[in-house]
Amino acid sequence: MKTAVVTDSTAYIPKDLREKLNIHMIPLSVIFGDETYQEEVEISASDFYEEVKHKELPTTSQPSIGEFTALYEKLANEFDAVISIHLSSGVSGTFQGAVSAGSMVDGIKAYPFDSEISCMVQGFYAIEAAEMAQQGISATDIIARLQEMKQSTRAYFMVDDLSHLQRGGRLSSAQALIGSLLQVKPLLHFVDKKIVPFEKIRTRKKAMKRIIELLGEDVKSGEPFRAVIIHANREEEAVEWKAELEAAYPNVEFMLSYFGPVIGTHLGEGAMGLGWVKK
């Protein structure tokens, strides 16, 4: 049984790694006025952050069911099953699109998977699934492993400006108002598939220190972990943070990633996050 792995563009898996692992990517889009750009295909993260300096923030859109069915039909020529891993259904209808398309396509069994998160932490699920698929492991066993990963998956992030999340409907108005009045840097995380405040912290430096403490609590057993630092156009700061974390936690394999156009629209430039999962 041959299993394909699909994820959406918000996993922000580097193209060379997607190609190496044969991960198929379906893009979400950002819309500036009358112009629509598929992220990771027609607009890069660096181009996006340059664009928003001169234009109003765009809106975002998910892939159509037709795009999903076209991809699944193409995969049906070569594969028996497809595991389709997507950003949290609490912030986007992308996962539901995968569910709908999976029920419409003949010749391939679809296994939609709600990562309940986004960005490269979502990418960890896709990478794991693809590595297992390349070993010939069955789709049902892969899904079981992804469910197991959820037990140790954590991610925390902070934003410089809560207004983007509020405007996009991803955070309530009251929470955004309180945050801006107090000049806090709230730590955010996903709970029940939605973005909610974890703690309110006064400064960026203290927020990042708190994230490190949370990582330390989880990895103190010495077991091997995989972690990712995610930044919104703050690469230099992210590189420095990675060096600091690698020195402190030798049992954790760290990588760098970014908040691309779609997620960056909702978080704004300057956001920083850290996610991890037990290997």
Describe the structure.
With 279 residues, this protein is an alpha/beta fold. It has two domains: 3-28 and 63-150, Rossmann fold (3-Layer(aba) Sandwich), CATH 3.40.50; 154-278, Hypothetical Protein Tm841, Chain: A,domain 3 (2-Layer Sandwich), CATH 3.30.1180. It is 42% helix and 25% strand. It contains eleven helices and 13 strands. The chain has helices at residues 15-21, 45-51, 65-75, 94-104, 119-134, 139-150, 163-167, 173-182, 204-219, 235-248, 261-267; strands at 3-8, 23-26, 29-32, 35-38, 59-61, 81-86, 109-114, 154-158, 187-191, 194-199, 225-231, 252-258, 272-278. Strands 10-9-8-13-11-12 form a six-stranded mixed β-sheet, with helices on both faces. α3 crosses α4 and α5 runs antiparallel to α6. The longest helix has 16 residues, at 119-134. The model has no long low-confidence stretch (mean pLDDT 92).
In short:
The chain has 279 residues and is of the alpha/beta class.
List the helices and strands and how they pair.
Blueprint: E1 3-8, H1 15-21, E2 23-26, E3 29-32, E4 35-38, H2 45-51, E5 59-61, H3 65-75, E6 81-86, H4 94-104, E7 109-114, H5 119-134, H6 139-150, E8 154-158, H7 163-167, H8 173-182, E9 187-191, E10 194-199, H9 204-219, E11 225-231, H10 235-248, E12 252-258, H11 261-267, E13 272-278
Parallel strand pairs: 1-2, 1-6, 6-7, 11-12
Antiparallel strand pairs: 3-4, 3-5, 8-9, 8-13, 9-10, 11-13
Helix pairs in contact: 3-4, 5-6
The number of domains: 2
Structural category is alpha/beta
Query: What is the count of helical runs?
Result: 11
Could you report the average pLDDT, rounded to the nearest whole number? 92
SSE ordering: EHEEEHEHEHEHHEHHEEHEHEHE
| Main pleated sheet | 6 strands, mixed
- In the CATH hierarchy, the architecture of the largest domain is 2-Layer Sandwich
Rough outline:
globular
Summarize the amount of helix as a percent range: 40-55%
Low-confidence stretches: none
Strand content: 25-35%
Q: Quick one: how many beta strands? A: 13
Strand order, largest beta sheet: 10-9-8-13-11-12
- Could you tell me how far the N terminus lies from the C terminus, measured between alpha carbons in angstroms? 25 Å
Rg of Cα set: 18 Å
Examine the coordinates and then state which fold CATH places here, giving the name of the CATH topology of the largest domain.
Hypothetical Protein Tm841, Chain: A,domain 3
**What is the CATH domain class of the largest domain?**
Alpha Beta
